[in-house]
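Hello,

Our lab assistant flagged a job as stuck in the queue for most of the afternoon. It eventually completed. Since we weren't sure the result was trustworthy after the delay, we are filing this so someone can double-check. Below is the sequence as submitted and the structure that was eventually returned. Let us know if re-running is recommended.
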Amino acid sequence: MLYIKIIMLQKMKIKFNYLIIYAFFALLVFASCQDETIDVNNPEEQEMIQPNSELARFMGNVTANYGEYDNILDDSSCFSVELPVTIIVGDITIVIETLDDLEELEDIFSQYEDEEDFFDFVFPVTIIFSDYTEVVIENEEQLEDFIEDCDLEDDEEIIECVDFVYPITFSVFNGDFNIVDTVTITNDEALYNFLDDLEDDDNALIVSLNYPVTLVYANGDTVEVNSNQELSDAIEAAEADCDDDDEDCDLNIEGIENLLLECGLEAEFYNESGDLSNTLHLYFNENGEVTVTGDPTVVETGEWNVIETDLGYKLVIEGLETFGIANGLWLLTDCDDDDEFEFEKETENGIVTMELELDCDDVADCDAQEIVEELKECLWYLGTDLLSPNYNGPLNFFEGGTVAIGNNEELTGSWEVLVGNTGTFLILDLPGDYGVLSYDWRIVECEDDRLVLVADENELVLEQDCETYDEVFECFGDFELEECLGPNNEAEFNLSADTIGLIDCQYAFEASFHETEADAEAGVSAIVETESYWSGTGEVYLRIEAENGNFEVFTIYLNTEECNYFECFESFDAVIEQCDNGTDGPYSFDLTIAFSNCNPSADVVTYHETLVDAETGVNAISNPESYTIIGVEAIVYTRVVIEDQFEVFPIVLVVQDCNPSGCTEEDVDGFLVECIWNAVNYNGSDNLMNWNFDFEPNSQTVVIYNNDTTIDATWTTSQSNDGVILTFSNVAGPNIQAINGEWLVVECEEDRLQLHSGDDILVLERTCE
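-- returned structure --
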């Protein structure tokens, strides 16, 4: 499953899991044992925090853990789920890190309104009750039990629209109203526990809140209070006004920033006459960068900030060139329902108005799950200035986060789809030349077959090409195979890729063979032994499946025939010749060369000295590669077994005169030592004509010389089956060194020798003057 992580950038109400540890009893004991003078502060009774008082209850309701924030997850106001928590929605894994992230889930959850249990928690999870007690939940059944047992009492009215601004401090007194300690509180949980301890009957503490204390309302406004009564009144007023948050532009800097970060915005610019002059799309991020796209299709990045001035809040945008109309100090003049803003700036041509509207529908249109499925469907070709036109992919996205480049699955990288509050992103990590595309690409346009993505000032266009999935079927068609009948009137068929041409298709696919067309259509019961499939005349069915799951079925017709297995052997008159070496033998023959082209088609081949032995299959010659005879002719017999049938074929062994020149070794030696010889012809050229050969008798030295150079080389003669061999060695000189090696004497006269060495021809003639 592909995991898609949703990361939100808004800040939640800070909740720290620290407990204030204080030893009030120890402090009291310590105070009673002091000899030093302690300042006495007699707080008025109305400034002390009385246990079970209305003010203590108000403060507890403000600081209690608010369980309704995450009802979209747990459907219970009795508790909240500790964050971060992971849920699975369809094929998307979502990590929820803040309470504000929950608002972003509504678009995703809306797709599943008619379904039950459309998401699952990844357990274990921890739930937190209003008094901050925690329980670890191991499975869905335990969670359901707690949800069913939820029963909020009327006096547990949590006030969620006002908060204390921390830190705040309390003075702690002993019975004589001496200050024995000052307790600093830094978060809601610590204050709730502090107040809860005051309710303890065994705790005789006297405490007062040190003023001034600041409260912050949900709309961002703050109020400073200086007494218990003012604090109680402020909390009570907030409680009565908790649901009244519809006032236009009731935002502070943080509220404005959060809305700008929520998703993309469409910006329309109007001149002083009210005429629309330009429309852009702006994407703000928490790093202070704003990415702008418009017409022409250009991606440009600038900087942004929100500041407070005497005139009000201003949005600062700078650093843009192509879209410089968006630069400037924009005064916030109006907002509506927290999704539309109106800003103004003064220019030389009058007042320019910029209307910003949250364009979260653009993110919804580019649904993460749909994009994941579309990417895996087909190949995607690239269009970007980061690569030369020759590097256009395609990219092949696979299940599990692997992406292959082109048709080479060895050149792979990784991919991931991520949804954030600024859009939907395609995260690419590619190797080699394609590494320049390793960015977090935000998807700004998405169609069925085309995606437009931006990263920094770069643009990437992906265009889908599904035609190759259909073209794979053009590689195939119905096919006929024909084989010889064997035992049981069946033939052995090879259904491998080589047999039916599967290896010739350039597209990726999976092939399987089936005995019935129904099995092929269903993709079940594939033939296992495809390279050795025995069958009579009939059909099998080839299923070709493309990478997107499309498939076609083709028919492979299996034909059989009566075959002459021994046709190859019958086509040879097997004669093996050996050259006469001037003796009566023995002569050695390699019997296996007689039918070397046919032997691979046979099951068994043996050699026998008599026909009877060959027909009965006994007394096979043990060394057929070096079989020897005495005399000049003999016959042996080859027994060939194919498909449990056999035939016997004779091999004639002949010893004959193989000397092509008619001269013996002694003749050649006598001719060479008598006179001076010259190379009158070397492969049709007389380039070696000026070299003289002086073959010295009674030694193996031949002096080869011309007017400039003298070479002492070596010569020998020998007798081979083919004739007399003249060998030259150690011939070191320009051009003449080509004669080194063995030369067969093919023509022999007293004053002329023609020699062959492979394709080379050398003619020597002598002069005896």
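-- support follow-up --
The delay was a queue issue, not a problem with the job. The result is valid. The mean pLDDT is 80. The CA atoms of residues 518 and 524 lie 9 Å apart.
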